[in-house]
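OP here, attaching both records as promised.
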Amino acid sequence: MDILTLPEPIAAYFAAEHNPESLAYCFTGQAVMKDDGHTYTGVEAIKAFMTAASAKYSATAVPFALAREDGFQVVRAQVTGNFPGSPVDLSYRFRLERGLIASLEITA
């Protein structure tokens, strides 16, 4: 089995998925995150969303593919948790800037 090597800020994001304080250090100050039809702008908004989502769904993401598309890093991950349809494969579309995540869009 091949080991998936992710860029550092993306690897840190997945490693910190249940630790919103650590997760906040993965993003630029003005980062934008889109998930489940909502947009969160800035580290504090992203951190608040991730804290609530972690408590509600206890989801764990396991990345299995990485591709580059139009300047974005797109990670496919299997997500398992307390939500209907679990597990599900999701796409995480990252735009990196100066070694941090500037934007992230999560879609099915």
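Record two, same layout:
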Amino acid sequence: MFDSPLSASAYEVLQSAPDATDDDLRKAYRLRLRQTHPDTGGDAAVFVQVQRAWDLVGTPAARAAYDRGHGFGAHAPSYAPAGPAGGASGDGGSSGWRPPRAAHDTRPRARSFGQPGGRRRESYLTLMREWAGRGADLPDPYDPALVRTAPRELRRLLADALAEEATARAVGDLGMGYTVWHDVAADPRDPDHKLDHVILGPSGLYAVLSEDVGGPIRLRRGELIGDGVVGAPIADTVAGARALGRAARVRFSGVIIVLPDDDVAQAIEEVGKVRGLLVAVVARSALQTVLRRGLTGARDIGGNELFDIRTRLQQVVRFA
């Protein structure tokens, strides 16, 4: 995923210098294909990244466009907040974020509370101004060329905000049968421990982590591993769900970890139970499917019970 704030450049994926000759770049590409091919013990997700990198710089015309775009090709991504400010459906006007929608789209949307990615964006803007503007306003703190040069901790904040917003858009499209709380404080004693999303629908009640570490991720013994993984994301999300469940006197159906499509080898990978909760790692494009059908072993939630769980959560949810 070369438009992520954390993604390596095409040259870095190919392990070649930006000023390498076309012949040397082609040799590097062929070597990386052999190194990463799944049939020879390589990582399938990395193998796909190598092919995508070659698509970006494999011809003189493509390479020239990529270099002119500061490593983003002909079309740089937009990192600015999506959608106008204003309260999302069901939040009483308290949210500063609205899922973007076409003007003619009148379908009922999921009931939404809180601001997805809001805390991460606030932290990003504060630190970016300190780093690039020395506290002054920047003309465009989301300029892709500026973002690419920023320290990794700043890019990680922005990547997480974008991931949370992408999940919010997907959940919003599920319709009025779903309720979602964003940026939920998991433990009032620990302000840094939050749940990115709490999603309630007919298929169950789920704690959802929206993650983007800028590269392929794998599972080992029920936990995420990868070059950009920090700490124990699955264990932390499970702990947050259990703490909130106790406070609200509800039981979570499971935990869902949402990752960029290019960073996982399969779209849906159900891990089993971690500390009593079902866990699945899901590609972003498969999230709606999982939320509609539920995790294997999770029971459906009926109308009266759905209302009761929503009421209990509303009474205790606090936003991070």
